[in-house]
Structure formats: C-alpha cells, structure tokens
Amino acid sequence: MARRSFSGLVLSVLLLLCAANAGAAYSPASPNGWFPIAGRGPAAGNAQVRTDLWLFNPDASAQAHVTLTFHPAAGSGAPAGAAVNSAPIVLFPHETKFFGDVTAATLPAGDGIFGAIEWTSDVAIMGTAHKYVSSVAGTAGGTYGATPSSESMGARSSATDTVNVLRVFGLHSGDASFSTALDLVNTSTVPLPVDVKVVQSPSTAILSSTSYTIAPKSLLRVGNPFSGIAADDTLQVTVGVREGTAISSGGVLAAATVTDLRSSDANVVLGQRQSAGFLGSGPCTPDANSLCLNSGRFKVTATWQSATASGTGTAIPGSSDTGQFWFFSSQNVEMVVKVLNGCGFNQRYWVFAGGLTNVAVTTTVTDILNGTVKVYTNPLNAAFQPIQDTAAFSTCP
Description:
This protein is mostly beta strands and 397 residues long. It has two domains: 25-270, Sandwich (Hypothetical Protein Tm1070, Chain: A), CATH 2.60.290; 291-393, no CATH class. Helices cover 7% and strands 50% of the residues. The protein has two helices and 27 strands. Strands 1, 2, 3, 4, 5, 6, 7, 8 and 9 form a nine-stranded antiparallel beta sheet that branches. Strands 18, 19, 20, 25 and 26 form a five-stranded antiparallel beta sheet that branches. Strand 16 (252-260) and strand 17 form a beta hairpin. The longest helix has 24 residues, at 2-25. The two termini are 34 Å apart.
C-alpha cells in the first residue's frame, strides 16, 4: 500500500509541475524579446510604411527599465549593420507606453530602412507592433505581438528533421491579389545558415529550397518565396537552421508580410513551431545524437549494445523537457526520456526514462551549466528498467 501511495504522490506532483511549466513556457512576457520586422519607407500613392510600438509592464509592483535596439537588415552572407539604441525607457507597474513611428524618433534609423527591434529589460515585459501604410486617406496594416527571444528556433537535429523548423502558412498563396514578403531574424550572436523551403500540403512535396546566411543580430529580407511557383493556397514556407550549427542562445524568427494588392492593406504572419519550446535556448546545443532538455540546460545521450553490434542512439526531439531515441531504424523508437524541474518540490532536477528494448543501454545526462553527470545503465538481455530518479541533480536553480 505504501508503495502505491508513493507512486500516486509522484504522479500528482508530476502533473502539477507539468501544468506549471506549460504555463510558464508559453507566457509572452520576457526580459528579452523581438519585433521581427519594423521600419519606415515609401509606399505607392505617395504613402509611407511606418511602425508603431506598444510596450506593457505586467508586473504589479516593479518598474521595468527597458532599452530598444534596432538591428538593420543585411544581405545574405553580409556582416551585420550598425545597431541603433533608444534612450532608457521606464515602465511603471501595469503601465503601457506608445511609440508612434518608432524608427523615426525613438530609434532614428532613417527613411527606407527596415530591420528588427529587440528589447532588453530588467523585468519581463510584453509588446505589440502595428506595421501599416499611412496616407491622406488613413492607415492600412496589421498588428502582431512581439516574440520572446527564448522562442527563437534553434538548429535542426538532422537533415531530415521536419519538426524543429518554423512554419509560415495562411499566406493567400493561391490568390494573385495578394503578395508575400518573407523576413528572417537572427536573434543569436553567430551567423546562422538557414534553409527556406516552399512545401505543398498534404503531399509534403518541396517545390523550392534556398539557402541563406543571416548575420548575427540581423534581419534578412528574403522577398517573395512563391516567385515562379504556380498559385496554390495549400502552400506553406518552412525555415530551418542547418543541423550541427552551434548556438549558445537565440536562433531564427520568421515573419511574412502579406499585402492585398487591391487596397495595400497588409498583415504580418509569424512563423510557428511544432515543438513545445526552443531546444537550444539553454547552454546545450542539440545534434543528431543529443537531446537538449529542460529548456536546453541538460544534454542527454544514449549508447546501445546487442549481442552482435553496438552504436549511439539517434535523437528525436520532442518538447523542451522530453525526447526520444531510435537505435536501429528511424521508424522504431527504442526509448523516451525527460528531465523535469523539481526544484520547487525537493530542490532537485528529475530524470525519467522508459525503454522498449532488451539491448544494453547506457544513458548519460549532463547538466551543461556545471558539468555534473548522471549515468544510467540497463544490462543486455534484460527488459529496460524504468528510470524514475527524483533526486538526480542537486544543482538548483
């Protein structure tokens, strides 16, 4: 009876922690975030493209001290341009501030200049941008929410990884009355090699694939990804960082401006992820044989040995906390593993794993922040014994 009670307690705590972590992972408030596309420049009919910003401090008691930085666009393979910083901005608790035509005054980047805007703050804040065409007849455009830097997409785990890419869809790609312009932002401090593909659904046929290199902390203006491709409203664009790219933090963001050519009205469509969180937002860099779990803090690898062969498990990224490995075939998952933050319960990080195999398996989990290592072994010709280590790492926080 005591054993069943302990199992029920662990399960209850796990559910509570997962719920708490899920809420935290998707909160838009962040001390570091991005507006992927902003700027000002001429438009048809003697009009002008402009960008307005709103910043909001959701904290009920603390002031936020914010700096905005404009990172201008740079061509593929070109170095980053000179950044433009704002004066310090103070947001009182629950205060919203408006910055009209932001790159004209707050961030004086100049006419005809487009780029990405980054914020840094000592308190987690939120932001909204309005990119629009201004004319004597009024304004036409769309509003989009800012993206926390931690949601930037890191490198793919392999050349065939179709999960850890940004997907941009809903682009009116089947209507000649609309035009799409794709923009990519590198939020990291290293050059990023990226592949942009036009994919047809549900066949997943790749209609075009183009490679670019984005300078650190820069915007790359790709243009119309559908140029030369027949109109088809099932098309989507995928954006992936080349596998094996080492990124300590940050990654790529994508934004597509979809313009109705009849009215010049435009909306910004942000690239979306399939995985639950950015796999490279911590110090761990994922690769073909490594999972980066618990927001990129822990690296997990698995080696295996049968009676006749041995090898290293191939990683299958999942969410920010959970992933899988295959040993013999990508169609045959052999084990699943997760690393959970139990610091609020017993001041430990937890490791859980399960396997569908009887080969020998050595699972190695490393806390990249301090080098602490835990190794778990399963012997040959024995059913994989579940790992439920709720005292794995005493390295909180």
